[in-house]
From TrEMBL:
One of its GO terms (biological process) is tRNA wobble adenosine to inosine editing. Residues 4-116 form the CMP/dCMP-type deaminase domain. The keyword Metal-binding applies. Gene3D superfamilies: Cytidine Deaminase, domain 2. InterPro entries: APOBEC/CMP_deaminase_Zn-bd, CMP_dCMP_dom, Cytidine_deaminase-like. It comes from Mesobacillus subterraneus. Keywords: Metal-binding, Zinc. The lineage of its organism: Bacteria, Bacillati, Bacillota, Bacilli, Bacillales. GO terms for molecular function: tRNA-specific adenosine-34 deaminase activity; zinc ion binding. This is Cytosine deaminase. Transmembrane segments: none annotated.
Amino acid sequence: MSIDKDRLFLEMALVEAEQALKENTYPVGAVIVDENFNLISTGRNRVHPAKDVTAHAEIDAIRNAGNAIFNAKIKREKFTIYTSLEPCPMCTGGILFANIKRVVWLLNDDLGFGGYKKIKDSKVFDERFNLVEMIEEPYEDLKNRQKDLMSKWAINPNNVINLRNAIK
């Protein structure tokens, strides 16, 4: 991908970040493009206006991508997400689950919740995870119901593996 294209899309992410700041929320913006540099979606932090702690810029852009991101995952298309700040752990997870293949950001967030590099390279968040209570499989009957749902999902025509097989 050319430097000029990266710059263009990072500038678009900055416009979204500026709008987020105008909306009195954390100034982060994101843009998703396909492998042909077509704009797929934009997003910005909306945590405060939406009263939604998960409304981060990257998640907003992924949500706004709608079917395009879902279809790209099925067809193994390569999307890029541009963001004005290093993605946090939640956004990193969203990026990975959305099957985005390239991530470009303007500013590392070593002192904040920047998590992309940390998750990739180390277990730096162990201290934070230790503050979270974890309860595994407390009810056998409910666990079995979930297993049953997962088995049904495996054969569902909308399962991504089944969708991929359908386009072959």
